[in-house]
Amino acid sequence: MKICLYLEFYNFLGGILFKKIGTGLLSSYKNQRTMLKYLNIEFTEKWDDSCDILQINTPWLRSIYLMKKAKRMGKKVIIWSHVTAEDAAQVFWFNKFLFPLIKRYLAYAYGLADLVFSPTEYTKSLLVAYGLSPEKIIARSNAVDLKKFYKDPALRESGRKKYDLKTTTVGTVALVIPRKGIDTFLAIAEKFPKLSFPWFGKIYSGLLVRPLPKNIPANVKFTGHIDSVNEAYNAMDIFVFPSYEENQGMVILEAGAVGLPVIVRDIPVYNGWLIHGKNCLKAKNNEGFEKCVKILVEDKKMREELGNNAKELAGENSIEVLSRSIEQIYRNLLAR
After folding, report:
1. Which pLDDT value is given to residue 16?
2. Which residues of the chain, if any, have pLDDT below 50?
3. Residue 166: which domain range?
4. How much is the pTM?
5. Of 58, 138, 289, 303, whose CB has the highest number of CB atoms within 10 Å?
6. Domain tally, the chain
């Protein structure tokens, strides 16, 4: 068995388009690569006629071409549904005008595959609504690499020193775009002036997204891209993720792997795997986030319990655990 693991533009100009971005798509791709190595399955990251399965990560034009070519050659095609029209429409300001076109294009692209991996049942439901057959879609976590994300006192010390974090820290890791809940993050920070609120993630040009407000609370730091995400997680005490739309939210599993208590927005994508009061707290609005932060700041025992349960959830979604089933999925696909 040989897999062609393909992420369009990944090798373009030395990978310049994927440097200093830190997206879930890129994290998932790296996890897939790690999983194949873990299983000792032969793979290539460039198109190779000798592959048995073409595994696509972004449905751009060359990917469409390769999927059609692979199908003509009798090879099987898998595509990861990292993108939906619902989340893509909320990335850059102009995307909302392209929503119908994005939806039609994705339905066409995903429809070319023999098998579609969706990160959650929620994403699967969106793809079925696009017209895809539910039989060809497998809801499967993007996984988390426990060798990259783990609790480390030394990293906590260095991270807090590097980012000047001297008080209880409520942070997040995300691209700095409105969809990720910048408005809520700033609103919470205003309510807790004595706490630190770092946001770790790439800041886009104001030409692409609505720029950050001019008056940012003094206790908020937007760091831009960082090299050590694990150091960022370790520097925090509470992880908050107020995103309005996700297909999974890999950062939740990463934060959980470090043992952080997690607060998320109460949106459908988390139904069934994030449970309020067990492995996270959920909030419907700014006031709800404020209450959740207050609870966790004041209740150390709850912080520890939620953090331990979030760590358990991360373990259940680790590369090692999820690798147990993917090889059989490949073999079943080839046997069709």
Report:
1. 59
2. none
3. 153-316
4. 0.94
5. 289
6. 2
